[in-house]
Amino acid sequence: MEKLVVHQVGNKQREESNFISNDLLQVDESMTKLLIKYLMKPFRQNPETYHFVHSVNVQMNEMNIIAKKLFEDKGHFYEGSKEILEFLYQQSNHPHIKSGDLFVCFLNDIQYEDELVEGIGIFKAESKDAFLKVSERSGQIQLKQEEGINTKKLDKGAVILNVDPDNGYRVLSVDNNSYDAEYWLYRFLNVDYIKDDSYATMSYMNMCESFSEEVIKNNGSKKDQLEFLNQSIDYFEANERIDTNEFKETLFPTEELKTQFQEFKTDYENNTGVVIADEFEISKPAFKKQKKNIKSNIKLDTDIQIKLDFRNPEASRQYLETGFDEQRGMKYYKIYFNEELDD
Fold it and tell me: In a 3-state reduction of DSSP, which class is residue 46?
């Protein structure tokens, strides 16, 4: 962390003022290590990569303009941080948007695709946690409640990497307080996904999840839906790349299902505007992140839930049966097992 400045950004609609620091912040080595861990850790598990965009020309994107000046002239860093503060403030025009502390820093030696590159970090801390400060006075322990930033959770952050400047740089982003999905990513940064393997992996998995909901479940049951998702996840885990023809041959036993999947893929692209690649290398970080978001619960109207484990794609087929009880006039699930396990 070569340079650091901390400002405070208010909410424009509530007519809150910004606080502008009058100089760069000088921090010692231990504080630098704490800040690096707090600010950069969320990006290790965030595989999405973006780039700046603009409706006319990417060189007209406000943040792209500021980033270019900072990369070309580090002496402009402090003035550039104020430009970032002001531009963020102009986008803070909704009552839900929170004020907060704005960290702007210049970073060196960021490892990106086997290269060490420079970066500009922009981070916003919106949440304050209460903590107890313990002190001793006159032989007595004193407790005092104070408020501060929880360094275990970053609210919002972006790292602009000095990579491919002609096409809007490479931008990483985190938003853990998504009360306004447009505010940080699209109005402030104005970015779009880089169409790489990570993007292809996430898009394909999202499409499969939609297919499971709109086709498999509607034509069968929740159990059928989860079996398909289970098999899809198993395919992603077992293979290095996706080939749609092979994917269909592996997962679908009938030509009807293969045709339905291909037709759904075309409709999905038309309806969402997302192009689903037919062949690509599977991004394991993107896969792991998307896998966590897939729900594996069967919720029943009798206040009972059945949770399936995606680690065994054959479990639901082997050990879970469905049927209809004529006497009760109710559907049922039958589960086979040898013994109950502790949590």
Answer: coil
Based on DSSP, count helices (H) and strands (E) in the chain, helices before strands.
10, 15
Q: What's the average model confidence in pLDDT over 32-50?
A: 86
Q: What is the pLDDT of residues 271-288, one digit of tens each?
A: 988 889 999 999 988 888
Whether the predicted pLDDT of 108 surpasses 90: yes
In angstroms, rounded to a whole number, what is the distance separating the alpha carbons of residues 56 and 66? 17
Domain boundaries, the chain: 3-194, 198-335
Instruction: Return the closest-CA partner of residue 173 out of 107, 119, 123.
Output: 123
Q: Which residues of 182-209 are buried (b: 16+ CB within 10 A; e: fewer)?
A: ebbbebbbbbbbbeebbbbbbbbbbbbb
b/e sequence 112-150, b meaning 16+ C-beta within 10 Å: eeeeeebbbbbbbbbeeeeeeeeeeeeeeeeeeeeeebe
The pair of three-digit structure tokens given for residue 335, joined into one six-digit string: 């589960």
Closest to 102 measured CA to CA, from 21, 223, 174: 21
| Per-residue pLDDT reduced to its tens digit, 228-239 | 888 898 899 899
Q: CA-to-CA distance for 5 and 20, rounded, in angstroms?
A: 9
**Sheet containing 50-52: which strands, arranged edge to edge?**
3-9, 100-112, 115-125, 156-161, 170-175, 50-52, 191-193
pTM attached to this predicted model? 0.76
If pLDDT is split at 50, 70 and 90, which confidence band does 247 have? very high
In Å, what is the CA distance from 190 to each residue of 13, 42, 76?
21, 20, 22
